[in-house]
Each structure stands twice: as structure tokens, then as C-alpha cells.
User: Which sequence fits this backbone?
């Protein structure tokens, strides 16, 4: 799937400026940048939540799903986990029993017990909620999954588990992903390709080790410089 | 629905409404015959023992009629409210499912109707649909509807912006289904609350209609009708009009109070209380930790913060910081870091209670100081920086003026002196063009610059202690870097003690000299920063470090992660709080491990650490 010359304008302000980005099948493309650099706007454009110019080629734009940053806001508090996950199965028109089996399968994909289906989001931890949101998105059989800062609102102790899940989904399902984060260390850990965004534009794209190991852009270098490291004083 | 608050108003509301409902049920069967009994010998009498509220022009007992009229009055009010609410909710929900242009038309109509006086709308409808109970009910219903429509629209708009609605849209859920399965269920509660209050209003409105002769017509009667009949005689026999008036007032007030109480109950978050209430045991200071430290700027021993209901977010925490030292306090959210900071600054919100074996700042015991002096000491020697700089800045005032105020209030400086110092301090924290920035309002500054301004505010005096609670969490990495550097610079040059709070162990590892790890309200490990990367001894600290990807993490291996979650402040039991997430846990961990020395300048609370 290729995002081609995508531009988003809000009035006179250009939030995303002529972005072209290829997401190879089965690859995780990481997108880093500071807050306000246009990462989330790009994500919302790609998933059709904000109008844009430009296009998406090489795939069905309707089969792009997104997982949001805040797991406390992305699940309807009045819906059970099972009902929320089943929302992703809308298009399949499954009979009741098959739908329930599919919900269980999706929950097990994200390593949640089937018994959670009857629970409400308030009974779940942040990490569990984020898994539910991922399961819901997977139900729609996406060609591309956009993950917008999905670990930023999580505690460090559960962030690791969610990152492991992201990688295992890629390995087991061959899922393509646009993985957005302001944390370069997190992006480096999960991505095959890293794209760096600055003031609405992509300033550098390349294989992860190259971008992280020998950045060519000044802005990328300053981002790398700024990352806090344990034991560096 | 959650429990109702036991406020006098809430209780009065419940009592009044219950009485009204009972009256509506038992009124007609008991007093029905009396209310209809015509007695030509006692026509138009005032209050007497036989007829406490007097009699009407056919000699019927007015008290009995008031008691009987309750059922009709309440039923009509209920009908009118339901009609109004149903119409209102439909009108309010329509714009979310209609095409753009039709939606705008509906919204415009609702807005126009909301601006129109309710009683006029009611009278107009009643006159058009015909005098009598039906017209009055429809009229009041029509008068109530626009308010409900507006409320539904506002509530629906806020739900429609929620991420879960975006997610549903993305999944191809239809607009109508989004309305019925996401929006309506989530706005039902406030709508129902509003219904209760609207009921009170409808009751008064209907009484008004009957009173104007537009409502219930004889031989039926409701309170409004009785009032209408009695009013002509109010100067001669006031009781005949007072009876129905009081009934209407009580019912109206009752429903309004109940609605208020329900609304309050709904907006209160439910606090889950633990079963066993753990107490701060006096003298539970761990051995080896109880000698006073004369050099320390801050010395905290056995600090406990409690909220009612057995919620104890900070449990016997001890901590000391030397001059020029930066101590990092890490732990996941809810571990009690912020409350520790607030307790030191004397800022724990009501009804929290702070207990400390010792709380000394610059050698002075804060617990023993009179309130006035404690404030003065904290005001001059403590600088606090929070995650959101706007919690320390007044959006209405210019930055320079706010800084200067610190100097005029606490240091008795003159206005020009204070002003000069403010600009000097802004320059000191590397704000470019400090003179111009001082004349700007906080919103004109970027997030990083506001945080600098807050630090500059702390530097107006000579801080002995700097507490920074997640000061860089909302900032970008590059800006975070600059703020961390500034904090170190400021600590070095003022010789202040700095407590740096963060959930991010990497940030703490980069900035601090010593690291204190908190879990479920307790310190579980304290160690020099050099040992953090490879010398941590507590399983929690180790897992935190292992689960954090950094730029050198091996990408071919899965990250470590910690199963389960931290117990809430009400759930913490008697044993090691980490036990049900810990790989090394044994039977012994049912008893809480003490925080004991583990090598040089290193403390750990774990049975398996030695
Ligand atoms: N006003 C309050 N009333 C009751 N509980 C509170 C209050 N403030 C904080 N808490 C609880 O205390 C615990 C610790 O909070 P906090 O100190 O903010 O943790 P941290 O800063 O480590 O995230 C949390 O579980 C929180 O719910
Ligand atoms: S005391 Fe026991 S449960 Fe607690 S951290 Fe140590 S080994 Fe684990
Ligand atoms: Mg906090």
C-alpha cells in the first residue's frame, strides 16, 4: 500500500504536507516526530476520519483500521468487551454462534481469555483495553493497521507486552502496520522501516538500522541525541 | 445508579417525592367519596374543625379534594414530561443521522424554540389543540421539548467526538446504529436526571395552565384547578387557596431537589473501599534508618497519606535528600509519587490525611511549626514544578508580573526591583528575549518555555528544595532534554536538593544521582544511579528496566513484561504488594519484606534479594 502525495489542510494551515510513504505488505513502518508534527493527522486522514487530497494506491482504503492512543476513550464504557469486538465483524454478516466464536478467536489472538467477553471496559487494565481495541480492529480483516501512540498512555510495565503483541501479529498474520510514536526507541524496536516527520513533512525514510545508525537529516540527528539513556551521564 | 448523597436537600427531595407518590396511590380510594360529597348546608365556608381547609361552592371538603387531586396532577405532569422528553430526544438526535442540510434545519428550529418563552409556547399549543387536560398536557410537553432537544444535542455532540465513535465509523457501523448503540446509551443517565427535574417543572406548569383556565375543566380537578377556584376567596378565607398552593409547591420542590441529588450522585466517582484497613503503625521505621541526618535538606520518615474508606496511597515512606543532590522517584502511575510530593509541600487535597514520623525541611520540623510559619518556610524555600505548567501560572496575568509577585510577597522587594529580577530570572532559564516574554501572557509561550517560566518563578527566591513532578512528560524529547539540563544546572548552582518524579526510568537514569523506586505506596528499592542499569536487586525494578526498550535493545528478542497490575491503594494487603506479579515469589512473601541495606548506599525490600 502506498500513501501518495497526501496533504491535509485546516484552513490555511497545512498539517500534512505532500507525504508519500510506502508500506510494504507484511512490514511495520514506524513514524516518529514531535507532537504537532502531523503524525496523528496523517493517521486520521489515512483512515478516512479527516478529508485530504492525494491518494492511497495499491490497496483498499476501506480496509484500513486504526488503534487509538487512549485506551480509556476508545472503548464504549456501556458496551461489553464482546460487543465492542463484534463491531468489527459488521461486514461479515455472521450468524450468532459463528460471531461468538470469531470474537473468541480475536481475543485469543491478542492473548486475552474468552471469559473477558462479558466484562465492561472499566473492569480492565489499560493494557487489556488496548488489546481489546486491537482485537476489534483485527476483526475487520484490515490490509493496514494504523497504531497511533498505542503505548504512550500505558505504564512501562505493560508497554513491553503490547509491543511484543504488535510484533507477534506481524509475524503470525503478516499484518502491515503504520506504527506511530514520539518515542524513537519504541519505534526502533518494532519497525522495519522508519520515517521521520517534522512540521508536516517527511524528512527521512529508510530501513530502521540505517536511520537510527547513520541518520542523514539534521532533525533526525537531534531527535536521536535527545533520547534519554540509562546509565549515560 | 449510585447511592444518593445524604445531604439534607437530597433527603428532603426523597421524602417529598415519596409522600407525593403515596398520596397519588392512596388519595382517591380513601378520600374520593369525601371529595365528591355535596353538602348544601356548608357552602363556601372557611377553615373549621370539620373542614380544615374550608369548603367550596357546592359544600365539598377542600382538604379531601386537594388530597384526591394529587393523582391527576402527578399523572398529567408525568405524561407531559414523557411527551416532551420523547419529542425532545428525537429532535435532538435527528441532526446526527439526517443529511447535512436537514440537520441544520432541525438545529435551527430547536434553537429558535429554546429562545421562545416556555409558557407562551404551552398556552399557544393548548389553545390550538383545545381546552382541557389534553391540551394542557400537550402544551407543557411542547414547552419542555426544546430544552430536552438542546440537551440531547449537546450531550450527543460530546459523545460523537469520542474515540470509540471514530472507531465504529472506521469499522463501517451505520450512523443510525452509532446513534442507538453508542450515543443514546451514553447520554441516557444525564437525560433521565433531567427528566426528574422536568417533572417538577411540568407540575408547576400544569398548575399554571389550570389556573389560567386552560387546563383541567370541571368536573375533573387538579391542584391548579382548585387553586383557580379558591383564588377569588383568598382575602376572605385564605386556607382554600393555600391548600392546593402548598401541595403544588411541595411537589415541585420535591422533584427538583431529587433531580439535583441524583445529578450529584451521578457525577461523583465511586470510591471502592478495601476490606482490611491497613494502619500506619507508629515506630515502624526500619532499623538503620532512624538516625537523624543533620546535613539533609529534606528528611522524610514514615510518611503516610490516607483518604477515607481505607484508601492509603502512601505507606510509611522514608526519603532524604542532600544539598545539590537530585533524587529520582520512579514508579508506575498510581504508585503514590505525586501524593508524596504534595504531602511534602503541604498540598494534599481534602479529605486526605498526612501522617509523618518526621518531616524536616532545612533542619526545621514542619510538623511542629505553627501554620503561618510553615507556609512562610515553604513559600521561601520550596519550588514546585508540575507536569502542566499552567497549574502554576495564571492565564490572565502577564508572565513577568506573576514572577515579580513572588518577590514582592515573600521577599518584600519593591515593584521595580521585583520586575528587574523577574526579567533576570527568565534570562537565567534561557528564555530568549526575556524582556519581551515578561510582557506576554502564558498562552503566548510554548509548552517548554512555560515550564522554564515556572522554574524561573522558583528561582525568584533561593530554593532549598525543588520538587519536579513529571515536569517533562508533556514535552517533546528535544525540549525534555533542555529542561533536564536546566534542572541540573539550577541544582548545581543553588545547591538545592531536588526531588525529580517520573514514570520514565530512563529519564531518571539520565538526570538523577540516586533513584528511589516506589510500588503501591512503598519504597521497594533505593540505589545509586550507576547501579540502575545492571545492579538493581528488586524484581520490580529489574522488570521495569527490562521492559523498557532503549536504543540498544536486541530487536530479535521479545521484551520483558510484567503480568497483572499494581493493586489499588485500597487493595494493598499485608504481604509484599508485588507478590502476585513476581516470578520469584515464595510463601514467605505473604509477609511484607522490610527495606534493608543491600550493599553500599543501596536499600531493597525483597526476601529474595540477598
Ligand atoms: N483525592 C484523592 N482521593 C482518593 N484517592 C486519591 C486521591 N488522590 C490520589 N488518590 C489515589 O492515590 C493513588 C496514588 O496517586 P498518585 O500519588 O497521584 O500516584 P502517581 O503520582 O504515582 O501516579 C492513586 O491510586 C490515586 O487514585
Ligand atoms: S518479596 Fe517476594 S514477592 Fe516481593 S519482590 Fe521479593 S520475591 Fe517478589
Ligand atoms: Mg503523578
Assistant:
Amino acid at each position: 500500500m502506498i500513501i501518495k502525495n497526501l496533504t491535509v489542510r485546516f484552513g490555511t494551515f497545512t498539517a500534512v504536507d505532500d507525504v508519500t510513504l510506502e508500506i510494504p505488505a507484511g512490514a511495520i513502518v514506524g513514524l516518529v516526530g514531535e507532537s504537532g508534527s502531523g503524525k496523528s493527522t496523517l493517521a486520521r486522514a489515512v483512515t478516512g476520519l479527516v478529508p485530504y487530497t492525494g491518494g492511497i494506491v495499491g490497496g483498499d482504503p476501506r480496509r484500513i483500521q486504526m488503534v487509538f492512543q487512549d485506551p480509556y476513550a476508545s472503548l464504549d464504557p456501556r458496551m461489553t468487551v464482546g460487543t465492542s469486538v463484534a463491531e468489527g465483524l459488521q461486514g461479515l454478516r455472521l450468524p450468532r454462534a459463528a460471531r461468538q466464536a470469531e470474537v473468541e478467536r480475536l481475543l485469543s489472538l491478542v492473548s486475552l481469555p474468552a471469559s473477558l467477553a462479558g466484562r465492561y471496559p472499566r473492569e480492565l487494565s489499560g493494557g487489556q483495553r488496548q488489546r481489546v481495541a486491537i482485537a476489534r480492529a483485527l476483526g475487520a480483516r484490515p490490509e493496514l493497521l494504523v497504531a497511533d501512540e498505542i503505548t504512550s498512555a500505558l505504564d512501562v510495565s505493560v508497554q513491553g507486552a503490547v509491543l511484543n503483541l504488535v510484533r507477534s501479529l506481524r509475524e503470525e498474520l503478516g499484518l502491515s502496520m503504520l506504527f506511530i510514536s514520539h518515542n524513537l526507541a519504541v519505534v526502533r524496536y518494532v519497525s522495519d522501516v522508519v520515517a521521520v516527520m517534522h512540521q508536516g513533512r517527511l524528512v527521512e525514510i529508510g530501513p530502521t538500522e540505517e536511520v537510527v545508525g547513520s541518520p542523514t537529516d539534521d532533525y533526525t540527528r537531534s531527535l536521536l541525541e535527545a533520547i534519554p539513556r540509562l546509565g549515560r551521564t | 445508579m449510585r447511592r444518593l448523597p445524604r445531604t439534607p436537600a437530597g433527603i428532603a427531595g426523597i421524602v417529598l417525592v415519596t409522600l407525593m407518590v403515596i398520596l397519588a396511590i392512596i388519595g382517591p380510594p380513601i378520600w374520593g367519596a369525601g371529595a365528591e360529597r355535596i353538602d348544601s348546608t356548608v357552602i363556601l365556608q372557611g377553615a373549621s374543625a370539620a373542614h380544615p381547609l374550608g369548603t367550596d361552592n357546592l359544600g365539598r371538603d377542600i382538604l379531601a379534594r386537594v388530597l384526591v387531586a394529587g393523582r391527576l396532577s402527578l399523572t398529567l405532569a408525568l405524561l407531559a414530561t414523557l411527551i416532551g422528553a420523547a419529542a425532545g430526544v428525537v429532535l435532538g438526535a435527528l441532526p446526527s443521522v439526517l443529511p447535512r442540510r436537514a440537520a441544520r434545519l432541525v438545529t435551527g428550529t430547536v434553537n429558535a424554540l429554546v429562545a421562545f418563552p416556555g409558557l407562551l409556547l404551552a398556552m399557544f399549543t393548548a389553545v390550538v389543540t383545545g381546552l382541557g387536560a389534553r391540551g394542557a398536557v400537550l402544551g407543557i410537553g411542547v414547552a419542555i421539548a426544546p430544552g430536552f432537544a438542546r440537551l440531547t444535542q449537546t450531550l450527543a455532540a460530546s459523545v460523537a467526538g469520542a474515540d470509540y465513535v471514530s472507531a465504529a465509523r472506521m469499522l463501517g457501523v451505520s450512523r443510525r446504529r452509532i446513534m442507538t448503540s453508542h450515543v443514546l446509551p451514553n447520554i441516557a443517565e444525564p437525560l433521565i436526571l433531567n427528566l426528574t427535574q422536568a417533572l417538577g417543572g411540568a407540575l408547576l406548569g400544569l398548575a399554571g395552565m389550570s389556573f389560567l383556565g386552560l387546563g383541567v375543566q370541571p368536573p375533573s380537578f387538579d391542584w391548579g384547578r382548585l387553586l383557580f377556584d379558591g383564588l377569588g376567596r383568598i382575602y376572605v378565607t385564605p386556607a382554600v387557596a393555600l391548600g392546593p398552593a402548598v401541595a403544588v409547591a411541595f411537589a415541585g420542590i420535591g422533584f427538583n431537589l431529587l433531580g439535583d441529588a441524583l445529578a450529584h450522585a451521578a457525577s461523583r466517582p465511586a470510591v471502592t473501599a478495601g476490606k482490611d484497613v491497613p494502619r500506619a503503625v507508629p515506630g515502624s521505621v526500619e532499623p538503620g534508618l532512624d538516625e537523624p541526618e543533620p546535613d539533609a535538606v529534606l528528611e522524610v520518615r514514615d510518611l503516610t497519606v490516607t483518604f477515607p474508606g481505607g484508601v492509603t496511597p502512601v505507606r510509611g515512606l522514608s526519603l532524604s535528600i542532600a544539598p545539590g543532590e537530585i533524587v529520582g522517584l520512579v514508579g508506575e502511575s498510581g504508585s503514590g509519587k505525586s501524593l508524596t510530593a504534595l504531602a511534602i509541600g503541604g498540598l494534599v487535597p481534602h479529605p486526605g490525611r498526612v501522617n509523618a514520623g518526621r518531616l524536616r525541611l532545612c533542619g526545621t520540623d514542619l510538623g511542629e511549626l505553627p501554620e503561618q510559619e510553615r507556609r512562610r518556610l515553604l513559600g521561601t524555600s520550596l519550588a514546585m514544578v508540575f507536569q502542566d505548567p499552567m497549574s502554576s501560572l495564571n492565564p490572565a496575568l502577564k508572565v513577568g508580573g506573576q514572577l515579580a509577585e513572588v518577590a514582592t510577597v515573600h521577599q518584600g522587594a519593591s515593584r521595580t526591583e521585583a520586575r528587574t529580577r523577574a526579567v533576570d530570572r527568565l534570562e537565567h532559564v534561557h528564555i530568549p528575549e526575556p524582556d519581551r516574554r515578561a510582557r506576554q501572557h502564558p498562552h503566548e509561550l510554548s509548552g517548554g518555555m512555560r515550564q522554564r517560566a515556572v522554574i524561573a518563578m522558583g528561582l525568584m527566591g533561593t530554593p532549598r528544595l525543588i520538587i519536579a513532578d513529571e515536569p517533562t512528560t508533556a514535552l517533546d524529547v528535544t525540549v525534555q532534554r533542555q529542561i533536564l539540563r536546566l534542572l541540573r544546572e539550577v541544582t548545581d548552582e543553588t545547591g538545592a536538593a531536588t526531588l525529580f518524579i517520573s514514570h520514565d526510568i530512563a529519564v531518571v537514569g539520565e538526570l538523577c544521582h540516586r533513584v528511589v523506586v516506589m510500588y503501591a505506596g512503598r519504597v521497594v528499592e533505593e540505589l545509586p544511579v550507576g547501579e540502575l542499569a545492571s545492579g538493581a536487586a528488586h524484581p520490580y525494578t529489574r522488570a521495569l528496566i527490562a521492559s523498557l526498550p532503549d536504543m540498544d535493545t536486541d530487536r530479535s528478542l521479545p521484551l520483558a513484561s510484567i503480568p497483572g497490575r499494581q493493586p489499588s491503594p485500597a487493595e494493598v494487603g499485608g504481604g509484599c504488594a508485588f507478590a502476585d506479579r513476581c516470578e520469584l515469589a515464595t510463601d514467605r512473601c505473604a509477609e511484607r519484606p522490610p527495606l534493608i541495606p543491600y550493599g553500599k548506599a543501596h536499600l531493597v525490600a525483597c526476601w529474595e534479594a540477598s
Observations:
- The first strand of chain B starts at residue 298 and ends at 307.
- Chain B is about 50% helix and 10% strand.
- The domain at 4-265 of chain B is CATH 1.10.3720.10 (MetI-like fold).
- The two ends of chain B are 51 Å apart (CA to CA).
